[in-house]
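Sample A.
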Amino acid sequence: MRGFVPSYCSDAKVISVEARAMLDVYDDPSEQRSLSLDDTSSAEESPEDTRLSLETSIDAIPYIGQRFVTHDAAYEYYSEYAKRCGFSIRRHRTEGKDGIGKGLTRRYFVCHRAGNTPMKAPNDNKPQRNRKSSRCGCQAYMRISKSTDMGVTEWRVTGFSNHHNHELLEPNQVRFLPAYRTISDADKNRILMFAKSGISVQQMMRLMELEKCVEPGYLPFTEKDVRNLIQSFKKVDQDEESIDLLKMCRNIKEKDPNFKYDFTIDANNRLENIAWSYSSSVQSYEIFGDAVVFDTTHRLTAFDMPLGIWVGMNNYGMPCFHGCVLLREENVRSFSWALKVFLSFMNGKAPQTILTDQNMCLKEAIAIEMPSTKHALCIWLIVAKFPSWFNAVLGERYNEWKAEFYRLYNLESIDDFELGWREMVNSFGLHTNRHITNLFAFRSLWALPYLRNHFFAGMTTTGLSKSINAFIQRFLSAQTHLAHFIEQVAVAVDFRDQAGEHQTMQQNLQNICLKTGAPMEAHAAAVLTPYAFCKLQDELVMAAHYASFQIEEGCFLVRHHTKMDGGRKVIWIPREELLSCSCHMFEFSGILCRHALRVLSTLNCFQIPDRYLPIRWRRVNSLPSKLAQAAAASDQVERVQALQSMVSALISEAAKSKERMDMASKEISILLSRIREQPISLHSSRS
């Protein structure tokens, strides 16, 4: 930022002696007239003391008596001058002279920060946009007056002040002022073509930077300008498509009574927000809704609408879809509505934990609507910003710093994390880096030492983000019509379900190899899914490398056999079969740690206590799930058991060769598609 400036620019060109003298007189307080914008007086100059400035004037500084052919030429000249100085201008006021009918005789051009924003009267029926005004009462201006000399009309500068009460912008900043941000017709056509092809706004910006050979961020418009332009493309069609969208929801509801949707209408009877969830999504949430990701980083580009997607992880370690929402605005009110509706879809059951992007409005909404839910930030969304945050700052040490960040992120102790963070800041000289400061301020929302007491189902890894993005990209397209969007999501969810079922079958058909021969291992293999069992098996194998020491009744110290100090404290209460370890791995992942398993082995336990084989990680045939309970309640037990028997026989026969496996997978996919096409009625579910 530059400080306050005198009445002329530092980079101004040399002007005539007469003009300089005139400007000196103008700047002399003893000779200067009032420069208030309320001044309606007109300075009169003799023709010989002034000269006509053409539209391509070479004069660098406005001065009293400067002449222009038209008032538009004066405006363009003053605008160019303002841009060089670090501000922009706007037309402030026009005046007529000698009564009505004489036409325009005087114009004021003022700094963009002139004046003060009037207070708006509160309107209970319309939400107020709490936007800070840039106006601060700046008095910089240029006044021009119309005169006719020998039948020739011209405009003369009769007032000028370049005294600002605010800082002026640097050349690399002034271009971001709205007055200097423009999108040419050629660029508009290019953006429209990009939008129809389905690419994101960020990708559009990058492509146009490459085409124009400019550095990132140096286009004459911003991402917000592009989003506003895209929104204008669809403004006319959106209302009609909103009506079609609601019709489609009603049609789906008629075919499937368990399909859920809700929406809001604004004061102009236009669709504002809409959320929906499918019956299969609600069912999966019953078991796997303990930890969810609410991803709000995507937009429906054609309509510039924020898109929110609720995703969880099933017992086979694969993403499962829970719900979707389209919002008009990203504010606390909209997010609160979305969360409230999602809870109503899921019968009022809030997740234990929820992972989101760094959105302060969403953070506030979660605190209001889900007060008992632990809120955390998606680490993969944070890490994705590291190159732009730290690459230029750290240079060759960037990769070294990133490795140190991950080491700190995975620590167990809060004290070790905070000590290590301070050492990292000192080592890399990041004391004044604002991103480092913000990361540390919000450390309790993303660093694992602060989160290990909460269950996240393994969703704190970057691997899940790839699966989620792959799912989203199946239906996210700029050319998507709103009326077809819900249908496209349903197709993507169905594809995800079929792919998941295929992977589930492949997991179940894998020959599980027992590595320790321990009864606990065989017991866990029979109960847990292959995904969960492999994680537990890794801990069982490592448990053999640890020694346990009973330090008091029910309290054990467990440490690696090569170490003489340190270790983890494990508490065992035999009467209640309660087990806890200071590493908190079970609380965090639902998988028992090597320390707890070592103690169970020491106590001659041959089976893992039932409570430490969570339902959400069990095989389907061992799930006392809501689905199975519902089947039992509606006298379908025999049919369910018969179907399970046929499925077991199918798996047994298909596993005998690759050809049989391929055939079974293909036919089952077809059968599932046909089953899903059948309507679901309350009568048939109770028969």
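Sample B, a different protein:
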Amino acid sequence: MVHCSCYHLSPETGEHPDVVSVIQSNGINLHTTHSWDFLRLEKNGSVGSSSLWTKANYGENIIIANLDCGVYPESKSFRGKGYGPIPTKWKGGCDNDTFCNNKLIGAKYYNNGYQAKYGKMDPSMNSARDHNGHGSHTLSIAGGNFVPDVSYNTVWMGTAKGGSPQARVAAYKVCWPVECHAADVVKGFETAVNDGVDVISASLGSHPTEYMNDALAIASFHAVKKGVTVVFSAGNEGPSSGTVTNVAPWVITVGASTIDREFQSFLFLANGLNLKGLSMPKPLPHPGFYTLINAANAKAETATEMDAMHCLQGTLDPEKVQGKILVCLRGVNDNVAKGTEAVLAGAAGMVLCNDKAHGFDITADFHVLPAIHITFPDGHRLYDYLNSTNLAKGYIFHPVPAIHTVSAPVVANFSSRGPNSITPEILKPDIVAPGVNILAAYSEVPEPVLPYNILSGTSVACPHVAGVVGLLKSVHPDWSPSAIKSAIMTTASTKENSYGYPMSDEIGGWAEPFSCGAGEINPNRAMNPGLVYNLTVNDYLDFLCTRGYDKSIIQKFSDQPYECPEKNNILDFNYPSITVHQLNGTVTVTRRLTNVGPPASYTVDVWSPMGIIVDVEPKTLAFGKKGEEHKFELTMKAQDGFGITDYVYGKLTWSNSNHYVKSPIVVSVLL
């Protein structure tokens, strides 16, 4: 896997890669952007009358901004044919008028901060043109056109499209070869808001820091204050705990999950064992068995067995590897780097075996040689075979795409996890969305020419949510950013698609809220949530008051003097999830629900966290009209003698015959 420096913030605010793998489309038939079918906006290419796409008219005239590496304006995903006049609210434009049309209505670049740090750039780089591909990819996922008959090397690939395919889009290039400088990102935010966008998608991030010192938190606050919904990627430091970034409560923070499509390949062993894996490489040069060799047995004289087993740089002996299929263990360096070392040592192919920590989490990386990625249990079987004979042989079959053959969604191994390291009382990530092996528009400069390409990462998941936000904004133009966020979170799915089992993580365990937030985004249900947890700008300012900020710091966000309330408890912050950090004795949490549907009554149901006694009052809420608000209280107490050493999880649901308004409950106990 390749860590692309384009998606870092400058060291002034930390660094964080938001792309974990870049996979070149290499002549394989696939259903492009299958994620929208997986999310039920369409079914086998057909869009029903109940689809959010239909209700929102595909996001027509919504304006989606993308802060990233720019845009490849010639892409069919951004062509303006068939679009009417640009919305009158639009005040932006393009730094180069040849970029703009009635689809791509904005393309600007900002690099003053970057140049102040690294020196003057080549003048030819001073444009919004995407030389990396990532900016075009993310923008087209959020709002790219329907593009039929997408192909690579004359191989048909289907139809590409974005979440809001009829939206207008604007690209703000704030990321450059080494990093995204915080000053340039902030300028991008300011400009996008002033230009009149409805949604900002930002697949970038930094290590979490106090909100008063977080340039992205401050910039996004000002966007939300103007009614613009901001969507961020959660980062790719998973599965380690406490790694989630972009943790401000006013933004939507998105983790990555899989979809039910695989690029299947098989490793056939001479002992008759057939191991299924994932792959997207070239086929082996000739049919028939190849000799297999454990990389530990192919170590260079100066290397350790463990370093060689991981296929680290310079650890392999070409005389031992030449012409064989090399077996490498996952970990330490990235997956694609292992393939590079295998090629340099003369390998004909590579088998990448998961270690125990990565379990069942395998990906179809684009390697520089024929390769297959297999799970930890299958890797164990392969190593047993290698240890049983001196004549181990195998063959890697060319991969084929397969749909509906795998349980999904599964939280991606790389997706950053909670808890929130700045404010543990705010659950992050908020939601997960498709972020593994997603095909979308790319840049055709420089070489190789790749009109469409496949990427994985939370940066790919982020624009999926931004596209859905555009649709919801089209259907509900009066909803606040917090109402949109609540609708997305409280209607999310926590089950996989095959048998309705709970969503799992990369090792097959239950996906806890710290990995998946409220669950997998469910666009059609988010359109009609029934109730929402609404938050105003003053609520967010009150939240900042709980951090102990003085008036001068609060004014960074409010732009005017603001008096913090005398009684102010972060547990009563009206977030769509409920997190109690270090419960001590008994605590009561207050929430407010606003009716966004017809008059209706709702009854509460609680799945209590293990060892926690939970009581909710009242147990029924009756709403007589749209906009009516009611309050409820949730009291929690740890059971006597029940030792809780970590977080425990539950769920609160308000429901009737038409709606289920679900909120995760997360509790830790102060022992």
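Observation for Sample B: The radius of gyration is 25 Å.
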